[in-house]
Design brief:
Layout (H helix, E strand, L loop, with lengths): L4 E3 L6 E3 L1 H23 L13 H4 L2 H5 L25 H29 L9 H23 L2 H10 L1 H18 L3 H7 L1 H8 L2 H15 L5 H21 L6 H27 L3 H7 L9 H22 L4 H5 L6
Antiparallel strand pairs: 1-2
Pfam families: Ferric_reduct
Membrane topology: Multi-pass membrane protein
Protein name: Protein-methionine-sulfoxide reductase heme-binding subunit MsrQ
């Protein structure tokens, strides 16, 4: 099928696909943001998109008291606009920037299937391949910059073997490479639809590994990794609901949102306990300290509830065909 086009009703005729175009623009967004920062020499800007909401930029230390685990908004990743100033080592911050965006694109790719069902938007599936390949491209550039920073492939190989978080990231890279190599129509024909689908379900563990890699390189500041992990839990929970035919019900979606939020809070508390020894009760209590920040658990639960309500409205106005409502199982 021609790039950025989709088959129209007429046989052999194609038209521009808004979904594919939007997906391509989203893939190009991190490169554009990075280019703008470099061209402007804006080495002091921490939030070029202006998305530094208090909930994403405040520190856990404020919620836990003095001496706790460092600010959660002032670490390596920061807000959605791309994190801290490029600083003394712009190459390192650039590879972190692209790696963070790769995780976001992986999650957005996994969100395509729920979104097309929850909002009865079949053509949204056209965007999934572009998003997935874009995430793989970001990971490849991320790894390439790491190799440049190390200066020697032998050093890179040694570091991958000796440092577990690099081993995890490299395994995710290899998995994405295998998915990218089979992300074309000819591969589906050669492998067969069933085998191809089984292979591409590796997107789930690959994303989990990417988020774990994100966690492990953040040291004390795990606000965004926690947020990404929470969204991943919601996406996986939705697939469980869909498998049992409950993926579009309001009550199950509300329960999923609340459960994902709670699981996110527990995950954050558990991570801080393992990484720093902070009492998990104090971390959980920080979720109620709204004067300091809005913790990732609330963002996950809030977005999940918003999706549930929006889907209910959309599906009432434009119901799914009966065979879709009864369908079970989900793809990536």
């Amino acid at each position: 099928m021609p790039f950025l086009r989709e088959r129209s009703g007429a046989r052999g005729s194609y038209q521009w696909s808004p979904e594919k175009i939007a997906a391509l623009l989203l893939v190009l967004l991190p490169f554009a943001l990075l280019a703008i920062r470099i061209l402007r020499g804006d080495l002091a800007a921490t939030d070029p998109l202006g998305l530094g909401a208090p909930g994403l930029g405040s520190g856990l230390g404020a919620g836990l008291g003095p001496g706790a685990a460092g600010g959660l908004g002032g670490g390596a990743s920061g807000g959605l606009g791309g994190g801290p100033a490029l600083g003394a080592r712009p190459l390192v911050e650039t590879l972190r920037f692209l790696g963070d965006w790769a995780v976001r694109l992986l999650l957005i790719t996994l969100a395509v299937t729920p979104a097309r069902r929850l909002f009865n938007w079949p053509k949204l599936l056209n965007a999934r391949r572009t998003l997935g390949l874009g995430a793989a491209a970001l990971v490849a550039v991320h790894f390439g910059l790491y190799c440049i920073d190390m200066g020697s492939l032998s050093v890179v190989a040694r570091e991958i073997v000796l440092r577990i978080y690099l081993t995890i990231g490299f395994v995710a890279l290899l998995g994405l490479a295998s998915l990218s190599a089979t992300s074309w129509d000819g591969a589906i024909a050669r492998l067969g639809a069933e085998r191809w689908s089984r292979l591409h379900r590796l997107a789930y563990p690959i994303t989990a590994l990417a988020i774990l890699h994100f966690f492990m390189q953040q040291k004390l500041d795990v606000t965004e990794p926690t947020l990404m992990a929470g969204f991943f839990l919601w996406l996986m929970g939705w697939r469980v609901l869909q498998r049992y035919g409950r993926g579009t019900g309001l009550a199950p979606l509300v329960l999923l949102a609340l459960s994902a939020g709670l699981a996110t809070a527990l995950l954050e508390a558990g991570w801080y306990l393992a990484a720093t020894g902070i009492d998990p009760v104090r971390v959980l209590q920080a979720n109620l300290a709204f004067a300091y920040s809005i913790r990732p658990a609330w963002w996950v639960a809030g977005l999940g509830l918003a999706v549930a309500l929006a889907s209910e409205v959309v599906l009432r106005l434009r119901p799914l065909p009966a065979r879709r409502v009864r369908a079970s199982g989900a793809t990536s």
